[in-house]
Design a protein that fits this description.
It catalyses: prephenate + H(+) = 3-phenylpyruvate + CO2 + H2O. It comes from Sutcliffiella tianshenii. This is Prephenate dehydratase. The protein is an alpha/beta fold and 289 residues long. The protein has 3 domains: 5-85 and 177-197, 3-Layer(aba) Sandwich (D-Maltodextrin-Binding Protein, domain 2), CATH 3.40.190.10; 88-168, D-Maltodextrin-Binding Protein, domain 2; 202-283, ACT domain (Alpha-Beta Plaits, 2-Layer Sandwich). Helices cover 28% and strands 33% of the residues. It has 10 helices and 15 strands. The chain has helices spanning 15-23, 35-43, 63-71, 93-98, 109-114, 116-122, 134-142, 156-161, 218-227, 262-272, and strands at residues 5-9, 28-32, 49-56, 60-61, 77-84, 88-91, 104-107, 127-130, 150-154, 165-168, 178-185, 199-210, 233-240, 248-254, 276-287. The strands form 2 sheets. Strands 1, 2, 3, 4, 5, 11, 12, 13, 14 and 15 form a 10-stranded mixed β-sheet that branches. The chain has a 5-stranded mixed β-sheet with strand order 8-7-9-6-10. α9 runs antiparallel to α10 (262-272). The longest helix has 11 residues, at 262-272. The chain starts with a strand and ends with a strand. The model has no long low-confidence stretch (mean pLDDT 88).
Length: 289
């Protein structure tokens, strides 16, 4: 039996890598340098699945994922993975021995933002440089080619992978720090690995809804279509349509798998109101340890 091929935001030891390793323990992993490249790899048949970050509990949505998924790469969501996030301040072992002050800190922009209070208190004069991922920051520091006294923010897997020393543990500002990742496939296919060991957080359906133009109360009517059917919405978010100022669509998450009556009825009602509706996926959300 062929192994599933899974593309993820690399390099090795990103939080996405951790999610893939946990959820696809038998899968064949392939790292990509950007989120769009990872998603394109599914469309091109290079991999079977893509796992990309969607939302962080502290920093909110990953807009590049949302926008590329909706505008450029229409892949169905087949699963959601919720991963607890622990950020650490890592340095090259030589830096730890020297004890020199930290002048520059590298990491992904979301990771830097998640640790703002710690950084402001401990390193108010440091310069923050953003990288494509936390692991790429760790890789940069590990190569020890930096002229400034440097550190990075990344996870424990990155510390192990790139042989870095932990200068400070759990530096994120809030304890309930989780990131949602989505699993994408070319078809609305079943996940082939056995995931019975993972906790099921919820069943979800995600929609993209575009309101009819120049119709007052349209959003209220959209929400009413779910409310009277007692369909619980866990998220509603607006994103620009990229067609001009003031033009938005809405991403709506419903805490229910697509059924034969309620959700199709709601979608039909929205379309009757003049809305455009697209189903991004109907899937299981898993809480990983």
């Amino acid at each position: 039996m062929m192994k599933d091929r899974i593309g993820y935001l690399g390099p090795k030891a990103t939080f996405t890598d951790m999610a893939v390793t946990s959820f696809f323990p038998q899968g064949e992993k392939k790292a990509y340098s950007t989120i769009p490249a990872c998603m394109d790899a599914v469309l091109n048949g290079e991999v079977d699945y893509a796992v990309v970050p969607l939302e962080n509990a502290i920093e909110g949505s990953v807009n590049v994922t949302l926008d590329y998924l909706i505008h450029d790469c229409p892949l169905p969501i087949v699963a959601e993975l919720i991963v607890p996030i622990s950020q650490h301040l890592l340095v090259h072992p030589d830096q730890l021995k020297n004890g020199d002050p930290i002048e520059v800190i590298y990491s992904h922009s979301h990771a830097i933002a998640q640790c703002h209070k710690f950084l402001h208190k401990k390193y108010p004069n440091a310069v923050y440089e953003t990288t494509s991922s936390t692991a790429s920051a760790a890789k940069l520091v590990s190569e020890h080619r930096l002229s400034k006294r440097s550190a990075c923010i990344a996870n424990s897997l990155a510390a192990k992978e790139y042989k870095l020393s932990v200068l400070a543990e759990d530096i994120h500002d809030y304890e309930n720090n989780h990131t949602k990742f989505i699993v994408l496939h070319r078809d609305e296919a079943m996940i082939t690995d056995n995931h019975a060991s993972h906790h099921v957080d919820s069943e979800k359906t995600s929609l993209v809804v575009t309101l009819p133009s120049d119709q007052s109360g349209a959003l209220h009517q959209v929400l009413s279509a779910f409310a009277w059917r007692k369909l619980n919405l866990s998220k509603i978010e607006s994103r620009p349509m990229k067609t001009g100022l003031g033009n938005y669509f809405f991403i709506i998450d419903i805490n229910q798998h697509m059924d034969e009556v309620l959700l199709p009825g709601a979608v039909g009602e929205l379309e009757a109101l003049g809305c455009s509706v697209k189903v991004l996926g109907s899937y299981t959300s898993y809480l990983l340890k």
